[in-house]
């Protein structure tokens, strides 16, 4: 394939080469990311896409329309983060995508999940680990570690972690007033075979750490509501009037420790596996 000088075409070529992995790739910075969103071919027009800040109770399947279920979904959304990585490690090799661009300053975007907070010597505060920190001059304190779980094809090693910005509460691309940020410091664990990575991050924003801690306490409160999870499971088992979607990849349901998640027809929401 001929080399492309147009940044959008180069990004399309790079996305094609990554195979089953899913990274948004930009050779033209943030501006090109907005163009990629508008030109999306996976779901043109983003039909049936519901931003989390627009989610309402009636969007849920009927068997899940409970306040606690709705609150749990909102809780999970608050722990989901946007990861912007501005460097491709020189140590990347196949089967990881972008190995052709190893050592280059290229913006890639993926997602992750805030999995925990790790205290250092029992404290939230620590000296800022960044030389010539762009956020605050001189010696100062940061807060963490915030542990982000993501895929190895998103963040591979320490070099990529140090060039990663973590955005929390990125719920509306047209309103960034609630967005809070952290920065990657290093990789705590990584498995290329399992496509798994745990990245340690810090933030200069004490309010972000407070919000994370509050969110984790909310999880503890929800986890005690066994009636919620028992009722969800029983509703799915007993509701035989709604046929399940059959698919060679997706089974009747995907089971997690706390939920049965089923894709159902004949409900008042669109099935994401149809079409």
Automatic annotation (TrEMBL):
This is Uncharacterized protein. It comes from the Eukaryota. The gene is ORF204863. It comes from Arion vulgaris.
């Amino acid at each position: 394939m001929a080399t492309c000088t147009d940044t959008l075409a180069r990004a399309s070529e790079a996305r094609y080469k990554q195979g089953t992995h899913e990274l948004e790739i930009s050779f033209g910075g943030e501006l090109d990311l907005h163009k990629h969103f508008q030109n999306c071919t996976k779901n043109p027009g983003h039909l049936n896409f519901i931003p989390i800040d627009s989610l309402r109770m009636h969007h849920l399947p009927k068997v899940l329309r409970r306040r606690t279920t709705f609150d749990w979904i909102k809780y999970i959304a608050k722990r989901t983060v946007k990861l912007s990585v501005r460097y491709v490690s020189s140590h990347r090799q196949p089967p990881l995508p972008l190995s052709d661009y190893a050592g280059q300053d290229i913006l890639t975007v993926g997602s992750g999940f805030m999995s925990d907070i790790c205290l250092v010597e029992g404290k939230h505060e620590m000296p800022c680990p960044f030389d010539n920190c762009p956020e605050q001059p001189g010696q100062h304190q940061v807060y963490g570690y915030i542990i982000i779980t993501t895929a190895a094809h998103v963040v591979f090693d320490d070099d990529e972690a140090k060039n990663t910005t973590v955005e929390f509460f990125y719920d509306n691309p047209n309103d960034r007033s609630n967005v809070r940020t952290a920065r990657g410091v290093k990789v705590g664990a990584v498995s290329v075979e399992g496509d798994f990575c745990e990245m340690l991050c810090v933030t200069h924003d004490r309010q972000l750490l407070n919000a994370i801690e509050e969110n984790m306490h909310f999880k503890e409160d929800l986890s005690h509501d066994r009636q919620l999870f028992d009722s969800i499971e029983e509703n799915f088992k007993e509701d035989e009037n709604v046929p399940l979607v059959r698919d060679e990849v997706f089974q009747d349901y995907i089971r997690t420790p706390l939920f049965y998640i089923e894709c159902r027809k004949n409900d008042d929401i669109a099935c994401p596996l149809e079409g």
